Amino acid sequence: MPQNKRESLIYTVLMCFVMVLWMSFYNVAIQQGGLSLAVFQAGWLGFPVAYVFAMCCDWFLVSKLAKGFAFRFLVKPQDTPLKKVICVSCCMVVPMVIIMSLYGACEGAFHTGAWASVPVHWLINIPRNFIMALPFQLLIAGPLVRKVFRTAFPEGKVLA
User: Rounded to an integer, what distance in angstroms lies between the CA atom of residue 55 and that of residue 18?
Assistant: First the structure.
């Protein structure tokens, strides 16, 4: 886990990149009904704005709330690092899925003009995104980003 603000920023940049890119491809594939080159093109084109939005939400809002909740109710200082990582990751996924599902519903309405359908699409998107985001975070993105992060930035190398 990151040890200071600079490490947290670097880690957040990497984690957001992996999660938003994957979830962009996933949502476009669902919208288009399957995987194709067009899915990857559309996912990649929509990625930059979604990434900036997710980074801002993560850095300025969700991270503080999720860590506060996790360390207040779920983990204790003496708990293992793995338990801390899993609890914080789960606490991050839940609000990010809720926020980014709303973002996706609004983005869809922006392209179609169907603004009245935003609440319905938002409620449909939440469980659909949650069932992909949580396992992906815990099993693939989390371990991958932690490995890349600690390989690139050994503990104690990024100064506060």
Answer: 12
